Amino acid sequence: MSNITVCARFRPLSSKEKKDSRDNICISSLNSESFVFKEEKEECTFSFDKVFYEESMQADVYEFLALPIVKDAVKGVNGTIITYGQTGAGKTYSVEGTSILECDEQKKGLLPRVVDGLFECIKSADELTKYTVKLSMVEIYMEKVRDLLDLTKDNIQIKENKMQEILLSGVTEITISNPEGALQSLSTEMNVGSSRSHCVYILTVQLESTTDKRVKTGKVILVDLAGSEKVEKSGAEGKVLEEAKTINKSLSALGNVINALTCGPSARSSHIPFRDSKLTRILQDALGGNSRTVLLCCCSPSPSNALETLSTLRFGTRAKHIKASPLVSCREDRHAKKHGDITLTKDESCDRIL
Ligand code: ADP
Ligand code: MG
């Protein structure tokens, strides 16, 4: 069984898309787990653990995919939430909201809700445990890890300790004592994040038993990935091309790791390629260990973005590793071959989706 929950989220059409697209949107809902995706004359059906349509609220997304992770974190269990999709698909909106100090309660994203949720859970927890919440924030740009809480640390090394835990060597960790404090710290560095880098937020909950002094930790990691879009071969040059290649490589590495992990024991290779990118290395504990992982595939509903949306949905489908589902039509397969798929190299032995 896969330990990955895969969800899809469609944002509302942007005003530009509303003007551009003659026919309105390229999906039609079947239920809260499945929808039909239409592209030109072709149609195929996708199924996920949950589909959030354009009218879905930030609170719905939080409750379904983050609240269980928050509840586990205060018990010392790790969890990771990853947002995937092309630039403009709603990744940052899902993670942060429109601004981290969002006054509009409804628009608050996952990150501020997770912070609130952690402190809520701690408030109602037993008194035999002393809780400490810490926050770190890094970005991965051109395969370099930069500390977003101290920009002078621009080449953080990833190390493994004796317990085989992944560590960001020397990264700034601030202890936060209430949600407001966390949000203040986050907001000061929030503008630094770019759609060409992966942004990683790490909330660590330390649980110290007041009786025997034993310490456990639970981590919640939120990842706002760089845009997954393909860069036009003709247009991209120099820095933009280099950025695109690096992003492509790390997203492929993520796909390969997810693929290796979600294959059944018979097909699973003993080697999981965590070391192929900084992104997968940082997520090694989260993905490989006994933790909950949620992949939120963010999509535009516009026909003008249909090919990128298809690529995102296919990434999600592979992560879920749905066994030959009658819902996934074979026409979708032809599409993928025609348009290529930047996100995963194929491992026939465990590719049972198609
Ligand atoms: P990404 O981070 O994937 O590049 P953004 O999160 O910045 O994309 O979203 C692009 C635009 O769409 C932003 O203006 C954002 O506020 C808006 N948007 C994204 N998702 C939603 C949503 N579910 N509801 C309303 N607006 C959204
Ligand atoms: Mg973004």
UniProtKB/TrEMBL annotation:
GO terms for biological process: microtubule-based movement. Keywords: ATP-binding, Coiled coil, Microtubule, Motor protein, Nucleotide-binding. GO terms for cellular component: microtubule. It comes from the Eukaryota. Residues 3-322 form the Kinesin motor domain. GO terms for molecular function: ATP binding; hydrolase activity, acting on ester bonds; microtubule binding; microtubule motor activity. ATP binds at residues 85-92. Belongs to the TRAFAC class myosin-kinesin ATPase superfamily. Kinesin family. KIN-1 subfamily. This is Kinesin-like protein. It comes from Salix brachista.
